[in-house]
Amino acid sequence: MDAQPGATILSWSSQGRQRLETVRAVVTERGLRANGYIVDAGDQPYGGSYSLLVDAKGRTRRLSAQSDSLEGERHLSLTRSPGGPWVVESTSGSNPLYALDAAVDIGLDASTFSHSLPLRRLAVLGHDDDPGTEFTVVVACISFPTLAVRPVAHHYTFRGDGLVSHRGPDGDGPLTVDPQFFVVDVPGASHRVG
Q1: Are 83 and 90 in contact (CB under 8 A)?
Q2: Looking at beta carbons, which pairs linking 149-157 to residues 24 or more positions away fall under 8 Å?
Q3: How many structural domains compose the chain?
Q4: What is the C-alpha to C-alpha distance for residues 87 and 90, in angstroms, rounded to an integer?
Q5: Residue 193 lies in a domain
Q6: Of 2, 156, 163, 194, which has the fewest beta carbons less than 10 angstroms from its beta carbon?
Q7: DSSP code, position 57
Q8: Would residue 39 count as lying in a domain?
Q9: How far is it, in rounded angstroms, from Cα 194 to Cα 63?
Q10: Which domain, by its residues, includes 145?
Protein backbone atom coordinates (compact mmCIF):
# COMPACT_ATOMS: atom_id res chain seq x y z
CA MET A 1 0.00 0.00 0.00
CA ASP A 2 1.38 3.42 -0.97
CA ALA A 3 1.68 6.31 1.48
CA GLN A 4 -0.92 9.05 1.11
CA PRO A 5 0.61 12.24 -0.38
CA GLY A 6 1.23 14.82 2.34
CA ALA A 7 0.87 12.25 5.14
CA THR A 8 3.44 11.90 7.89
CA ILE A 9 3.66 10.10 11.22
CA LEU A 10 5.18 12.06 14.13
CA SER A 11 5.92 10.61 17.58
CA TRP A 12 7.21 12.11 20.83
CA SER A 13 8.37 10.70 24.13
CA SER A 14 8.37 12.65 27.37
CA GLN A 15 11.65 13.15 29.19
CA GLY A 16 10.96 10.32 31.65
CA ARG A 17 9.28 8.20 28.96
CA GLN A 18 6.04 8.14 30.93
CA ARG A 19 4.08 9.80 28.12
CA LEU A 20 4.03 8.88 24.46
CA GLU A 21 2.25 10.75 21.67
CA THR A 22 1.84 9.66 18.05
CA VAL A 23 0.14 11.73 15.36
CA ARG A 24 -0.75 11.06 11.74
CA ALA A 25 -0.84 14.42 9.99
CA VAL A 26 -1.98 15.04 6.42
CA VAL A 27 -1.11 18.41 4.88
CA THR A 28 -2.93 19.51 1.70
CA GLU A 29 -3.66 22.82 0.00
CA ARG A 30 -6.94 22.87 1.97
CA GLY A 31 -5.20 22.64 5.36
CA LEU A 32 -4.25 19.94 7.83
CA ARG A 33 -5.95 16.88 9.27
CA ALA A 34 -4.43 15.12 12.25
CA ASN A 35 -5.27 12.09 14.36
CA GLY A 36 -3.28 11.63 17.54
CA TYR A 37 -2.94 9.27 20.46
CA ILE A 38 -1.52 9.95 23.90
CA VAL A 39 -0.65 7.33 26.52
CA ASP A 40 0.43 8.53 29.96
CA ALA A 41 1.72 5.89 32.41
CA GLY A 42 2.42 8.36 35.23
CA ASP A 43 0.84 8.61 38.67
CA GLN A 44 -2.66 9.00 37.19
CA PRO A 45 -2.50 6.91 34.00
CA TYR A 46 -4.79 7.54 31.06
CA GLY A 47 -5.10 7.11 27.34
CA GLY A 48 -6.43 9.72 24.99
CA SER A 49 -7.07 10.34 21.35
CA TYR A 50 -7.89 13.37 19.26
CA SER A 51 -8.78 14.30 15.72
CA LEU A 52 -8.57 17.84 14.39
CA LEU A 53 -9.11 19.82 11.23
CA VAL A 54 -7.24 23.02 10.34
CA ASP A 55 -8.17 25.22 7.36
CA ALA A 56 -5.81 26.60 4.68
CA LYS A 57 -5.19 29.75 6.75
CA GLY A 58 -4.02 27.67 9.71
CA ARG A 59 -7.14 28.17 11.84
CA THR A 60 -8.37 25.16 13.79
CA ARG A 61 -11.98 24.45 12.87
CA ARG A 62 -12.82 21.21 14.64
CA LEU A 63 -11.48 18.98 17.39
CA SER A 64 -12.82 15.71 18.72
CA ALA A 65 -11.16 14.22 21.80
CA GLN A 66 -11.72 11.31 24.11
CA SER A 67 -9.96 9.97 27.15
CA ASP A 68 -10.01 6.83 29.26
CA SER A 69 -8.85 6.79 32.87
CA LEU A 70 -9.79 5.17 36.15
CA GLU A 71 -12.53 7.81 36.51
CA GLY A 72 -14.16 6.66 33.27
CA GLU A 73 -14.52 7.64 29.64
CA ARG A 74 -14.95 11.21 28.43
CA HIS A 75 -15.77 12.66 25.03
CA LEU A 76 -15.56 16.23 23.74
CA SER A 77 -16.14 17.97 20.44
CA LEU A 78 -15.24 21.61 19.69
CA THR A 79 -16.17 23.30 16.43
CA ARG A 80 -15.94 26.84 15.14
CA SER A 81 -17.35 28.29 11.97
CA PRO A 82 -15.77 31.44 10.51
CA GLY A 83 -16.93 34.41 12.58
CA GLY A 84 -18.84 32.26 15.06
CA PRO A 85 -18.13 31.15 18.62
CA TRP A 86 -16.53 27.87 19.61
CA VAL A 87 -19.27 25.34 20.32
CA VAL A 88 -18.62 22.48 22.72
CA GLU A 89 -20.52 19.23 22.47
CA SER A 90 -20.23 16.74 25.27
CA THR A 91 -22.41 14.30 27.17
CA SER A 92 -24.01 17.30 28.91
CA GLY A 93 -25.16 18.92 25.65
CA SER A 94 -24.10 21.55 23.13
CA ASN A 95 -23.18 25.10 24.17
CA PRO A 96 -21.27 28.08 22.79
CA LEU A 97 -18.11 28.90 24.76
CA TYR A 98 -17.79 32.69 24.54
CA ALA A 99 -14.79 32.64 26.92
CA LEU A 100 -12.85 31.16 23.97
CA ASP A 101 -13.65 33.98 21.52
CA ALA A 102 -9.98 35.08 21.32
CA ALA A 103 -8.76 31.52 20.63
CA VAL A 104 -7.93 30.65 17.04
CA ASP A 105 -5.93 27.53 17.84
CA ILE A 106 -6.42 24.42 19.94
CA GLY A 107 -3.95 23.43 22.65
CA LEU A 108 -3.82 20.05 24.33
CA ASP A 109 -1.98 20.26 27.64
CA ALA A 110 -0.59 16.73 27.22
CA SER A 111 0.46 17.22 23.59
CA THR A 112 3.75 18.31 22.07
CA PHE A 113 2.13 18.33 18.62
CA SER A 114 -0.42 21.00 19.54
CA HIS A 115 2.35 23.65 19.79
CA SER A 116 2.74 23.12 16.04
CA LEU A 117 -0.75 24.50 15.33
CA PRO A 118 -0.16 28.18 16.26
CA LEU A 119 3.40 28.03 14.89
CA ARG A 120 2.19 26.78 11.51
CA ARG A 121 -0.59 29.41 11.46
CA LEU A 122 1.87 32.21 12.28
CA ALA A 123 4.16 30.90 9.51
CA VAL A 124 1.26 30.95 7.01
CA LEU A 125 0.85 34.63 7.92
CA GLY A 126 4.58 35.18 7.27
CA HIS A 127 5.47 35.94 10.89
CA ASP A 128 8.31 33.40 10.89
CA ASP A 129 10.19 35.96 8.73
CA ASP A 130 10.03 38.46 11.61
CA PRO A 131 12.63 37.06 14.06
CA GLY A 132 12.70 38.57 17.53
CA THR A 133 9.05 39.66 17.58
CA GLU A 134 6.93 38.00 20.26
CA PHE A 135 3.47 36.81 19.23
CA THR A 136 0.81 36.17 21.87
CA VAL A 137 -1.56 33.37 20.96
CA VAL A 138 -4.68 32.42 22.91
CA VAL A 139 -5.57 28.75 22.54
CA ALA A 140 -8.62 26.76 23.54
CA CYS A 141 -6.72 24.45 25.92
CA ILE A 142 -8.07 20.99 26.60
CA SER A 143 -6.80 19.17 29.71
CA PHE A 144 -6.33 15.41 29.66
CA PRO A 145 -7.90 13.24 31.00
CA THR A 146 -10.72 15.54 32.23
CA LEU A 147 -11.23 17.22 28.82
CA ALA A 148 -11.92 20.51 30.62
CA VAL A 149 -11.61 23.51 28.27
CA ARG A 150 -10.21 26.95 29.10
CA PRO A 151 -8.48 29.83 27.29
CA VAL A 152 -4.71 29.90 27.76
CA ALA A 153 -2.14 32.40 26.42
CA HIS A 154 1.14 31.27 24.90
CA HIS A 155 3.91 33.58 23.70
CA TYR A 156 6.11 32.58 20.74
CA THR A 157 9.19 34.30 19.27
CA PHE A 158 10.76 32.96 16.07
CA ARG A 159 14.57 32.93 16.39
CA GLY A 160 15.52 31.43 13.03
CA ASP A 161 17.30 28.16 12.23
CA GLY A 162 14.37 26.12 13.56
CA LEU A 163 14.34 27.70 17.03
CA VAL A 164 11.31 29.30 18.67
CA SER A 165 11.23 30.80 22.17
CA HIS A 166 8.11 29.91 24.12
CA ARG A 167 6.53 31.31 27.28
CA GLY A 168 3.42 29.68 28.66
CA PRO A 169 1.60 28.50 31.77
CA ASP A 170 3.94 25.52 32.19
CA GLY A 171 7.16 27.51 31.91
CA ASP A 172 9.52 29.14 29.46
CA GLY A 173 11.99 27.61 27.06
CA PRO A 174 13.03 27.00 23.50
CA LEU A 175 11.23 24.81 20.98
CA THR A 176 12.92 23.23 17.99
CA VAL A 177 10.81 22.92 14.83
CA ASP A 178 11.31 21.24 11.46
CA PRO A 179 10.88 23.05 8.10
CA GLN A 180 7.09 22.45 8.22
CA PHE A 181 6.94 24.00 11.73
CA PHE A 182 6.10 20.71 13.42
CA VAL A 183 7.72 20.64 16.86
CA VAL A 184 10.78 18.40 17.13
CA ASP A 185 11.96 19.03 20.67
CA VAL A 186 10.87 20.71 23.90
CA PRO A 187 14.08 20.55 25.97
CA GLY A 188 13.52 18.94 29.36
CA ALA A 189 9.97 17.91 28.44
CA SER A 190 9.72 15.84 25.25
CA HIS A 191 11.53 14.94 22.06
CA ARG A 192 10.53 13.50 18.72
CA VAL A 193 11.44 9.87 18.13
CA GLY A 194 11.71 7.79 14.98
Answers
A1: no
A2: 149/76, 149/78, 149/88, 149/97, 149/100, 150/99, 151/99, 151/100, 151/102, 151/103, 152/107, 154/107, 154/115, 154/118, 156/118, 156/119, 156/122, 157/131, 157/132, 157/133
A3: 1
A4: 10
A5: no
A6: 2
A7: T
A8: yes
A9: 26
A10: 7-188
Instruction: Return per-residue pLDDT of the chain as tens, 194 residues.
Output: 455 668 999 999 988 889 999 999 999 999 999 999 999 998 899 999 999 999 999 999 999 999 999 999 999 999 998 788 999 987 777 899 999 999 999 999 999 999 999 999 999 888 888 888 999 999 999 999 999 999 999 999 999 889 999 998 878 889 999 999 999 998 888 999 97
Position 194 in a domain: no
CA distance 74 to 28: 30
Query: Tell me, what amino acid is at 120?
Result: R
Q: Give the Cβ contact number of residue 189 at 10 Å.
A: 16
Sign for the CA dihedral angle at 190, 145, 75, 152 comes to negative
